[in-house]
Amino acid sequence: MKILGVMPARKGSKGIKEKNTKLLNGKPLVCYTLEEALKSKLHKVVVSTDCPKVKSISERYDVEIIDRPSSLSSDNALTLPVLQHVLGQLSEPYDAVMTLQPTSPLRGFRHINEAIELFKSDSSADSLVSVIKAPHNCVPEKIMILNGKYLSGNNDIIRRQDVDEYYVRNGASIYISSIELLRSHIIGKNVLPYLMNKIESLDIDDIEDWNIIEAVMKSLPMIEKKI
């Protein structure tokens, strides 16, 4: 099975200016994903970008760079048409695409390889998503809503052991989609879960996330080797 790795990395960013090229613990954010993807069993790695800085950084690596059109680079641009655009620029056929957002810098080649092997092991799967267990205090049985000035919801005190187990997508660490599925969706109906832990799942949406991940990297200097 040939799986293409695609890192979408546009120029704009709402939360952090020039986030994808900003130095995280001394290294541009996109480098973490590029380096781990190239250590993995992905058949090929492609960068889709409209950013000259991302392009310049990516040129240091053995990846193919595809210029993303402005119509796919706005704040409202969706990932699916970006992936479809990438596939339209390539002549080599693939069986599936792994989407690797640069905002998950603690995702390592081990996770990529394990996800690949899991997806390959199930011929009925059309997609795979990296997940984390939902914290027990955030499950539906314990969630309350603010109705005026009072909270409403389940009034019973439920023990952690007595609630169902839920899983949530951990940012956008790993998605695998079959080529057939990518005609219309990234996530299909037969979705395999790839479980990751709390630290591995840290994802950057805003400056608080950035500071947390940078602190983790500095306090756990061996983390890059472990992933």
Keywords for this entry:
alpha/beta; 227 residues; 6 helices; eight-stranded mixed sheet; two-stranded antiparallel sheet
Question: What do you see in this structure?
Answer:
26% of the residues lie in helices and 22% in strands. The protein has 227 residues and is of the alpha/beta class. The strands form three sheets. Strands 1, 4, 5, 6, 7, 10, 11 and 12 form an eight-stranded mixed beta sheet that branches. The protein has a two-stranded antiparallel sheet with strand order 2-3. Strands 8-9 form a two-stranded antiparallel sheet. The two termini are 24 Å apart.
Q: Can you give me a brief rundown of this structure?
A:
Helices cover 26% and strands 22% of the residues. With 227 residues, it is of the alpha/beta class.
Determine the fraction of residues in helical runs and give it as a percent range: 25-40%
Number of helices: 6
**Residue runs with pLDDT of under 50 for 5 or more positions:** none
Shape, per Cα inertia axes = globular
The termini sit apart by 24 Å
The average pLDDT score comes to 90
Radius of gyration, CA atoms, in whole angstroms: 19 Å
Q: Major β-sheet, in short?
A: 8 strands, mixed
Strand content: 15-25%
User: What is the string of helix and strand elements?
Assistant: EEEHEHEHEHEEEEEEHH
Total count of strands = 12
Class based on secondary structure composition and strand pairing: alpha/beta
